[in-house]
Automatic annotation (TrEMBL):
Name of the featured protein: Cyclic nucleotide-binding protein
Xref: PANTHER family: INTEGRAL MEMBRANE PROTEIN-RELATED, MEMBRANE PROTEIN
UniProt-listed InterPro entries: DUF1003
Keyword match Transmembrane helix: yes
Domain of life, per lineage: Bacteria
Regions that span the bilayer: 117-139, 145-168
Keyword Membrane listed: yes
Species this protein is from: Flavobacterium frigidimaris
Keywords: Membrane, Transmembrane, Transmembrane helix
Length: 233
């Protein structure tokens, strides 16, 4: 003979079969918190029906999924905001304009021209024309006969002036390399710090999700046990 006794729910005042009675003290804290939020007078000694408990179980799972989706949306917004507001070191390095003095510009131009094929070919042509004009046209009786003392003087003067100018350009290039190395170090350091921050955030997120998933699994197991008990009855 079936037991037809019933009880009255503490939150809805509806009557349910005695077999579906759930005491407040047997409800997990997250779900109990949802019930107390809607019904502040609910306590551990009160009872509700399985159907009502399942409603709050589904509400808990739904709230968790909504919170996770909201957290992801907030994370995307934060990333976009940080990209807009925070100017990275890379952009700062690229935006920096190099200031050069007039002498530095001249030294760079001389170094660029002195280390090019244009200078080599034009200088060889100048020497050939100089020697050819003095030897074949003026028959060593012109302004610079053999052994071309004037030409040697010109070459010596060019070499004496060109060497320090090129050294000036090389020194400035070394300074640029040092500054570039400092900037590379700053970029690498910032990248390392950001990677560490990302690892910490991921670890925190994983720990938080594991705890929430454990609670959800408990709720799902309880719901399956309730279903199995009803099927057995």
């Amino acid at each position: 003979m079936k037991n037809n006794s019933t009880f009255k729910s503490a939150i809805s005042d509806l009557e349910f079969p005695e077999s579906e009675k759930i005491w407040g003290k047997s409800i997990h804290d997250p779900i109990l918190g949802l019930i107390v939020k809607d019904y502040p007078s609910f306590c551990d000694t009160d009872c509700i029906g399985v159907q009502e408990l399942n409603v709050y179980r589904q509400k808990y799972i739904s709230n968790y999924l909504s919170a996770e989706m909201g957290a992801l949306s907030d994370l995307e917004k934060n990333v976009i905001t940080s990209l807009k507001e925070d100017k990275s070191i890379v952009s700062i390095v690229e935006d920096e304009e190099e200031t050069r003095s007039f002498g530095q510009k001249i030294a760079d131009q001389v170094a660029d021209f002195g280390g090019s094929w244009t200078f080599i070919i034009s200088f060889l042509a100048f020497i050939v024309v100089w020697i050819g004009s003095n030897v074949y046209i003026l028959v060593n009786k012109g302004f610079d006969p053999y052994p071309f003392i004037l030409l040697n003087l010109i070459l010596s003067c060019i070499a004496a002036l060109q060497a320090p100018v090129i050294m000036m350009s090389q020194n400035r290039q070394e300074e640029k390399d040092r500054n570039r190395a400092k900037k590379d170090y700053m970029i690498n350091l910032k990248s390392e710090l950001e990677i560490r921050m990302i690892h910490d955030k991921i670890d925190h997120l994983i720990m938080h999700q594991q705890q929430e998933l454990i609670e959800i699994q408990k709720v799902q197991i309880e719901m399956m046990n309730d279903i199995l008990n009803q099927v057995k009855k």
